[in-house]
Design brief:
Layout: H1 6-20, H2 43-57, H3 63-72, H4 80-101
Helix pairs in contact: 1-2, 1-4
């Protein structure tokens, strides 16, 4: 099982991106790579990515919340870094929720 370290989540996410859209993800991926601007992800790519993220990380990510946050921020939106941070935040919240229910 993967822990919540940024480096591990980043590496896993890069692998998922390469699986989901191998024709779009052909070069190096950095934390500042934008799914929309740099990789030209469309809505189908994004849905596929969401399904893979949920399965790999065993989470239920609120992708609409992430998209809303990204649309309101200044700077380059929809970056790999922001998605990594959101995955880590979601995992921590869901782990915390499970612990309080037990």
């Amino acid at each position: 099982m993967i822990n919540n370290s940024y480096d591990e989540v980043f590496r896993a996410l890069v692998n998922i991106l390469r699986q989901v859209a191998p024709l779009k993800v052909t070069g190096p991926i950095s934390p500042e790579t934008s799914l929309a601007e740099d990789l030209n992800f469309d809505s189908l790519d994004t849905v596929d990515l969401l399904l893979h993220i949920n399965e790999y990380f065993s989470i239920n990510i609120d992708f609409e919340k992430w998209i809303l946050q990204e649309s309101q921020k200044e700077g380059k939106p929809y970056t790999v870094k922001s998605l990594c941070d959101f995955i880590i935040e979601t995992r921590k919240m869901q782990i915390s929720k499970c612990k309080t229910q037990n």
